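Trying the structure run again after the queue cleared.
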Amino acid sequence: MRAQLNALRFALRAALGFRRGRPPLAQEPKDALFDYLDAKGEHAAALKEAELRARYRLEPLAACSTRFDYRDNLYVLEALETVVGTHAFTPRSPDGALRVVDVGSKNFNYAFALERFFRRYGTAGGGVSLLGVEVDGHVVYRDLYARCDYADAYAKQTGNPRVGYRVADFCTTPFEEPSDITTLLFPFVTRQALVRWGLPVRFFEPERLLQRALETTPQGHLLVFSQTESERDTLVELLSRLGASTVRSVPLRSRLVHYHEAADERFATLFAIH
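Done. Tokens:
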């Protein structure tokens, strides 16, 4: 029954294509940002926040964001640093920009972290071009703004005109140029998770999704976050069969988000595409 309702609701959302326009982003104070931790943990998290803020110039984000969104961006930055290490990504486009596609971007509230990270880790000094792709971008929130409205606001907040967002099915979307890196933050590898998120079961095609990621990122890299070690192992097996190799896989045990206890089984994995 839930799967059938998902299909109906998704079809209605897609048909309406509701957009209200870019919303104003809320600002919340960042004092006592890690007050869910004990004193020692709070001190360590505050030091890490200061380090990331300086390294990635997060002041514009800190000055205009909710506590939740700010911590989520810190979490993504820490995770990316942990899995990428000293690895460098070489752009192949003539303009020297590192081309990144993020698949399953939801409302793209972590766009700032992705843009800042890959701007730093590109090797040619040409900046970064970042595109978020989300199949279900017309979900309407309680404030009557759509998911894609918020995504546009988060993309705009980066200050980089080459950051964008597209409501589309990644598996069937043509791209003018190949990407250097494709990121998939917590892709669905079980049907149950996809149904709980509200998507029709026809979108549960993990092997097709990964194959498409490899096709659009020739000789590049995939960066994948997984909810559990079991999910990570499933992805490693699938991608190995499809022609990608594992560069590095690390557990994500951050204390920079308030839901850290529920996220302690997560993994980040970097794959090279041959």
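The chain has one domain: 2-273. Worth checking whether this holds up in the mutant runs.
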